[in-house]
Amino acid sequence: MISVSKDNKVFHIQTEKSSYVLGVSAKGHLSHYYFGKRVIQREKMENLFRTLPLPYASSTSYSDDDPAYSLDFIGREEATPGKGDYRRPSLILKDRSSGDGVYDFIYHSHSLNEEKVPLKGLPSALKAGDKASQTLIIRLKDLSREVYLNLSYSSFPESDVITRNCLIENRSGETIELDRIMSCSLDMDLQDMDLISLNGAWIRERHEHRRTLGPGLTELGSRRGVSSSDHNPFFALATEDTNESSGECYGFSLVYSGSHSCLVEQSPQNQIRIQLGIQDEGFHWILNNSDDFQTPEAVLSFSENGLSHLSRNFHRFVQNHIVRGHWQYKERPVLINNWEATYFDFNEKKLLALAKEAASTGIELFVLDDGWFGKRNDDTTSLGDWFVDRKKLPNGLKGLQEKIKKIGMNFGLWVEPEMISVNSKLYRAHPDWMVRSSRQNPSPGRNQFLLDLTNKEVREYLVKTLSDVFSSADISYIKWDMNRNFSDCFSNCLPADQQEEFAHRYVLGLYEILQALNAAFPEILFESCASGGNRYDLGMLCYMPQTWTSDNTDAIERLPIQYGTSFYAPPSTIAAHVSGVPSHQVLRETSLESRFNTAAFGVLGYELDLTKGTNFDKKVIKKQINFYKKHRTLFQFGDFYRIKGGTDENEYLWMVLSKDRREAMAGWYQILARPNAYPRRLRFPSLLPDSEYTVSNRVQYENIRRFGELVKEALPLDLKEGGLVLSKLADNYLYKLEEDTITAGGDFLSAKGYLPRPGFYGSGMKEGITFVGDFGSRIYHIEIK
Hints:
Strand content: 25-35%
Radius of gyration: 28 Å
Number of helices: 15
Number of strands: 38
CATH class of the largest domain: Mainly Beta
């Protein structure tokens, strides 16, 4: 609900549990009054803003008729430089003719719309079904020019989310130059806050980082051309005592897939300025008369019940308003990807052998990864040549797909359309389509280069070529990869004064391509990938309902990655695979069961060579898949709770809860075993307090090789470690670990928790003892019987 005061000076945006209040100051500037716990709508809410009786020493007065009014001391909803506000501006522009960059935007008018209007050329949140959504547009005008700034605020009450964006309109009759424009800027009176960000690198994306916010400016962002694994465009502010289940916190994100900036600045007066938007380094935009510029959309949410509740706000928002189309609420298939099983070394016979083994375990989708096109036998060649390598696949994609369908699986394909190899037919035909400096030798990344998506011919070529590929066989899934960052940014199709528009125009070009392909192939399940999680943002999720979370498939390294990702992304978007051991990324050995237990809390897949797997492996995988399918809706679409974990923690505990709160699935993970350790209670929050629940662990199976010399205590046989009998037995025998079931009240399980059986503590193997060890884990099923 959005309310406007009778004098049109105060605007109150309400969601189910939050309020956002802004208003017009005495001088006409748009001021921020309040963002936090929902408050009652009152007519005199401008009293939330207090003016100074006297000017502060050394402050700059806005005008001589009111010396105490200074833009450096009021909370603002936009911020231009040059009039006494010395904090980071949200908007920097200037007249081309004179170079004058002093702009002063004041209130002009406003409108209230009952519908959420999509942004032109950019992905944005959409109204979903009968869920309410209103949009307030406040139009500001520069005092001396016909230049307008439209600030848009949309409410999504059921998600407790507010989105913001801005549109600048040049009607001045002159050309202006835009050097910085943030999607969102607001100044809040907050004290003693922590900043939480998601930082990392390739194969260690989105690790939670929490620190105390102090004076000065903190900027998180990307200059890589993509949203990046360095600093995801999500961050949160939380009071110092806020944890997962209690405390006040604010979350912010950006619906954008390019270079970005997220800024938090604490002023000397302890006011906190928050900004999100396009990275301004390397950004310069020409606005001729009658031109407009639209920013990406920023996302804001508040929670008074801790960080996990804040995340569930984002999850509802992403599920209901970001993800769209055929797969929005549809269960995702269990897949096998051939990459870590074969890399580039495959042919049709090898792929079909892998597919047969996969189908026998219950896997539903076979995905052919890199190496199927051109002469692609390594990563130095053929990107751009999207035609089948007939030496590897003599019957083409259609022939392979039809054979896989007969085996009992659907067929998916990997592509990397934004790239070009110098050693390719496409490059030889169109060298001008490659992004490169007009003077310098280009810098390669992974032996490849960018295609110029600012070029209309390139965009049309990609839509046509990919449409031909996608329709050449019955393809139900596409993995869209992007394996390098930007460099040598120069376009042959842009004039000199628009070269600094390249990075943003590239992203707009990408969105245009994705929109066209989504429209042409609405039932294909698209999965976004960029060297793993280098572009895991809300912009890509508007076109691709799930994202390859990380190239790191190690079960233990995935814990902090998936933990951090869950701050803004729901499980239905988190692609997670069970891979072979030792891990191809960190050389760690983890059990097959722990690999599944991590991957199950997302969109499950497998990425290992099942043709070399033992009978033990295949039997266990079949049981895993049966269990996952039985509870797939809960795993993919349940409400996600982070209970314990984070970077450098030794234990993780998280849970998904059904919408009616009658069923849950919890995952518990131990990094290193501690000697002689007594089990800790596992608390399962938000269960129905008056109901009785049954808690039972998923039955797991251990390969007896792992017992070493203790195998004699585990089995009533005289087996020699390393012997032939043990080896044969280990390849075929499923050693069943503990089964434990209890019944308890929902109130007790939420408040006190479930006490697992004690783990092995060096005194022998006996019924009632659990065998967990290093990198061990369990899944617990909690339900009302």
